[in-house]
Design a protein that fits this description.
Oligomer: single chain
Shape: flat
Largest sheet: 6 strands, antiparallel
Number of domains: 1
Radius of gyration: 18 Å
Order of helices and strands: EEEEEEH
Structural class: mainly beta
Distance between the termini: 62 Å
Length: about 90
């Protein structure tokens, strides 16, 4: 018997915080989390309790840099640099 359960949690302001799906007590199907400002934080797909596919979103370029462990504070525009820094020949 396949018992499917969808769990939804909200922020205090009423916005959806997360949606999770379980099948027979295991993570299964689509999972989505949102920031409080309604932007997606991440989404993933689980199959038989294991993560199958994962996408993470960031509120800003600065958040991405923090996640990546960069300390590049010189980028005042908040946008990726247009120069390709790996384009060197020896």
């Amino acid at each position: 018997m396949n018992k499917i359960k969808k769990q939804i949690e909200h922020y205090p302001n009423g916005q959806i915080k997360k949606e999770e799906t379980y099948k027979d007590g295991k993570r299964d199907g689509e999972w989505t989390y949102w920031y409080e400002n309604e932007q997606k934080q991440w989404e993933g797909t689980f199959k038989d309790g294991e993560l199958d596919l994962y996408t993470e979103y960031f509120e800003s370029w600065e958040e991405l840099l923090k996640w990546a462990g960069s300390d590049d504070d010189d980028n005042s525009t908040g946008e990726p640099d247009s120069q390709n820094e790996t384009d060197s020949k020896e």
